[in-house]
Structure prediction request, 1126 residues.
Amino acid sequence: MNTCELVTGQARNESARGVTLQVEYTGDASFSTLVSFDVLSPSRLTISAADSTLNRIEDAAGHLLSSCTNGGATRYPYQSTRLKATAVLMLAQGLTTIEITNLVLFKVDALGVATVGDGSDWNLLLGRAAGTATVFLGTQNASSPQDAPSLRITVSDTPVRVQSMLSRVVTDVTWASSPASAYSYGTVVTVSVLVRQRLAAEGDSGRLFSRVVWSDGASEDVGVATASGLDEMRVVSGTPNVVVHEPQSNSDGVWKLGVAFAASTECVTSVQVNWTVCGSAMASASVPMYIDVPEVTNATIYSLISRLTAVDDDARLSPIGVPTSASLTLIVGFSDGSSKDMTADSRVSYSVDDDACALLDNARHVVAATARTAGCSEIVVLATVAVGSSRVTARLAIPLVYVDRITLEFVGYPSYNSHIKLTSLYEVECQSGVYQHAAPLVTARLTDGSSASVTSASRLASSNETVLTVSDFTRLVARVPGSSIVSARFGDKMTASSTLEVHPEAAAVNAVVWGIAEVTSGADQTLLQYFNHSTMTRVSVTFASMSGQLGSLSYHDLGADAFAGWVDISTMLSFSSSRPYAVSVDDVGTLTLKENSESTIEMEVRMACSPSTKMQTTVKANLLPLEQDVDAGAASGFQFQQDLDSNLLPIELRIRGISSVANLAITAFSVKVYGYDTRILTSKTAQGASFVSSGIFSGTESELDGVHDGAEGGLARVLGADAASTVSGGLVGLNVGTLTLAVVGSGVTLVDVEIENLEIFNTHTSTKFAELQYVGALAAVGYASVGIGRRSLAAEGVERPPPELGGYSGIRRRRQRRGLESSCDPCTALVWGDFNGDCNFLPSDISALQRMVLRRVPFASGEGTDPLETLDWTVAPVTSCASFIQLQANPTRDVMDFGVGDPRYLAPKVDSTDNEHLLAASVKKYRLLADMDASCTFSSFTGSTNQELLVVARVVGGDGQNTGTVGADPARTDVLAELRISPSANFFNVSVGALVHSRAPSSGYPASTYSGMGSDQIGILTRLAHRSDGDYELRLQPQDESNSVEFRYEIALMVETKASADVASTALRSKPWLGSSVLPYTNSGFTFRPVWGGGAQLGGGGSSFLAGRAVLTCASARHHMLRYSL
Prediction:
C-alpha cells in the first residue's frame, strides 16, 4: 500500500478539521484502519516582493556597472529582491493570512529579464536586463487561469547606488518566544527570535552578515554568495585580538570573525568590510565587536599516578608495579567561572623544586623519578600560567616509595586454604606415604607502610629436597618427614627464608562432603539424566587442626587436577549405592543413571581406613529421554507420583524426536502403556482413567479400557498424527498430554511402555528421515508405588520385585531398539488402515493420508490428475493391490461432488473427515467398513413368496488391528441399518437381525428422495446380527399378504463402538455411512443419506460402493415367479 497517494484538486477548496480516511485490504483476510487529518485550503494566494522594480546599480564613484563574467558565471548589474508567498485561510477565528514561501516554488516567464535562484536562494529574484517579467507559482504560466497568483516585475536601467551598508557579527540565534511542540488546528502561532553576539573565550567566532540600503529605498543582503571577480567581500582586521576566517577556510563557507589566541578584552572598531561588484567598489562598513575575555583566577595541576618510585628500585617490578614517571594535567580557572585544560598551552611553564629528585619532560608534560640514591621522599612539580596580565602558579607533590624488605610465610595448599598459615605438614589419612602440601607466600613491605604479594615473581629454593621440593612458585611438595629451609629472592637485592617441618603422623579427616546436590535437581535431589549417562561428582574432606597449623585444612573436589598424582580418591574413600541397578557409583564417586526408581536411593561415602567418618544422602532417579525415545511421568522427583487428593496416577507423556539434526519434526507417534498389575492400576474410564491432550501436538487420540493379557483396563494407548508438525521435542521431549490411570489397589507395579510408532520427517525436504515401530521405551519404563486412600506403602512393607528375578532390569536387558523393518508384502498382509504400505495400521498411515489430502488439493480444484493413482507414497510396492491401498484413503466411503462428464466424477472424496475417521479407528473408537452388499433373495418366511432384503457388511477393527485385519468384536460393536422402504408397510418380518423401535425420531423418519421414492415410504431402524469374524447380516421383508407388492430400499449403515463388552456400556463413538436421522447422529448435523440403494446420483456425491449406486427393488411373488418361469 506504499504507492497509495491522497491528492486534493483545485475543486477541493474548503478547509476542514478531523477528516477521516478509511483504508481497507481484502485478500486471504480482511483488514481496515482509519486515518484522521486536517485539510487547510487557502481561499486566496498572493505573490509579493520586497522590491518590485529592480534598477541598474552604479558603484561608489557613480559609474554604471556592466555585466562581468568569470569561469562561466555572470554577474548582472541589477538589483535583486526576495519573493514571498502568502495564503488566506478560513480558520476557527476567521480569515487569517499565513506565509507559505517555504512551501512553494517560483517561476519567471521572461528569463532574459529576470531569473530565480536555486538551493537556499529559491526565492531570490535577480534582474538581468531592462524589461518586464511575470512571476508565477510552481508550474503555472500565462495560460493558467486568470485567478492564478502572479506578480509583475520591472527591471529598469534607472541608476541606483548604495546609500549605506551595515555589517554585524552574529554568534547565535535563540528563541525569544518559542512555538509549542504541537500545532493546534485553527490557532495563530506568534514567535520571535533573539540574535546575539557573544565573544567570551579564545576560539569563539560568529558569522558576518551585511546589508545595503539603496538610494531607491530598497535593501538587500550582500556578501552571502560571493564569487571571485564578480561579487566579493574583503575583511581587514586592525587588532591582534580578532582573527578573520575566509569562506574557503571553514566548513560553513561564509565569512567568520573570531577571538584570536591570547586575545584580551577589547571593544573592537578596527575591523573593516568592503563590498565590490565586477571589480568596482560598492560600499564599506565598520564591524563592531566586543571581546570580553575573562581573567585567569586559579590553576590546578594533578596526575592520575598517586605515587612514584626510583628507576632502580624493586618497587617498579611486577607485581608491585609502582610507576617511575607520571603524566601531568593542568586545569586553569577563569573569572567567569569557566575552566579549561591548558596542559599543552605555550603560556604554561613547568619546573621541579629539586632537580636531583626528578627529570621533567616539558614536551610530553611528564615527570620522572631519578635514582634511589638521591634520597628523595617526594617530587614537587610547579606549573606557572601567564595569560595577559594574569599570572598564577600551581603545585603538585607526588610521594616516592621504595621496597624496605620481603618476608616469607607458608599457607595451606590448594589456594582456597591460603587463609591458613602454617609451619608444619602431616601425612594424609588413609594415604600412606602421602603428605599435605603448602604454598609459599612472599610479601614485599614498602616504605609507606603498604605491602604487596610478590610470590609469583620470586625465586624459591629448598635446602633439603629429599624432604621438600619446590613446584614452581605455587606449591611446596612434602616428600618424607623432616625439615627444610626455604629461601626466596625478589628483584636484585631482596631475600628472605623460613623453615617448614614435615611430620610422620597422619592428620585425621573430621568431615567428608559428597557434592551430590550439585549434580541433582531440586530440593528432593533428583538425578535427572539420560540412560547410562555418567556424572562426575565432587568429594571434599576437612582435616583436624594440627600443631603448627592455624586452622583446619580442607581439600575440595579430590578428583580435580590439583590432586592428580598426589591423593588417590579410590583408595582414600569408599562409595556405595543402595540400588546400584538404578544408580551405580564407581570408586571415584562417578554416578551412572540406569533406570528410574520409585523410592529414594541411599548414597554413602566413607573414609576407607576410618569407616565412622562418612556422609550419607539420598537421591531420586528419573531418566530423561534419549533421541527417539519416550518419557513418562513427572519431570523431576519420583517418576510416578500419585495425586495426593485422589486415587489417580497422572502420567505426563513426553515424546522426543531428533534434535541433533536441524529441520526434523515428529509427525506421528503411538505409545502403549501396559504391563502393570490391574489389581493396582487400571485404564478403565469407569474407575476414573482419562487422557487430556496438552494441545501442543495437533491430532492426538487415546485408547482407554484396553485389554492386555486378557485383563480389561490393562492397557492404554496414546497416539497422534500431524503431517504439518514442526516440533522435535527438544532435549526433554514434547509434552503431548497426561494419561491418568486409576489406582484400585496398593502396591508396587511395573509400568511398561512401548513405542509402537514414531515417525520423523524433514520439514525442509518433506521426506521421511526415520521411523520406529514396536520398540521398547527406555526413559518411560519404571515402577509405580501407589496406594488406595493414600496409605503409606512403606508402612505396609511393600517392595518392588528384586532385579535378579527378571523385573524392570531384566526387561531393560532384553530390549533392543530397532528401526522400521521393510521386509513385508502389504499385498499379502492386506491390513485394513495400512495406507502407507508397511503392513501395519499405525499413526504414520494417518500422517501419510494427511499429506495425500494436501497433494489432492489441485486435483480437487480441477487441475491435473489424481495423485492417488500414482502409488508413490507407499513404503513397499503395492501395484498388485493398488485398489486396496487406495481404499484406505477413504474410510468414509463417499465420492466427490462432481457430476457426470467431470474427470472427478466418482473419484473418492479424500478429506479431513477421512483423517479423523482413520485417527479414531486407530484407537478403536471407529471401525472400518471393509465391504458391504445389499440384494434381494428368496424369502425365508413361510407363506411369503416375495423376495426379501439381504444386507451383509464386513466390519473390521479392534484388538490386534495394528498388524493384521481383525473382525469387529460383536461385544464391543453394534452395526445398525436405517432403511427407507417404499411403498410403506405396517409390519416387517425379520429372520436375521432385529428391529429397533426405541430410537425412532420423535417426529418420525423424514422422507428420502435419493432413489426417486415417492411420498409413500416408511423409515425403520434395524440391528444387524453378527455371523462370524466381523461379518454382520440383516434379512428383512415387509408383510404383504397379497404377495404382489414390489418394495424399493435405501440403506444407511451405522457402526457404534463401546469401550467395554458390558451390555450397559455406552457407545464411545458412532459413525454413519453416509448419514442417519436418529440420535446421536443428528446432534452432529447428519441427516439420512444412503450408502446403498441411492440410485445413480449423476450429479455427484454419494456412496463409493459403485454397485450400490442403483435403485434396489425386491420383486413381488408374481414378478418373481414370472421372471424365473421365463
Summary: The mean pLDDT is 91.
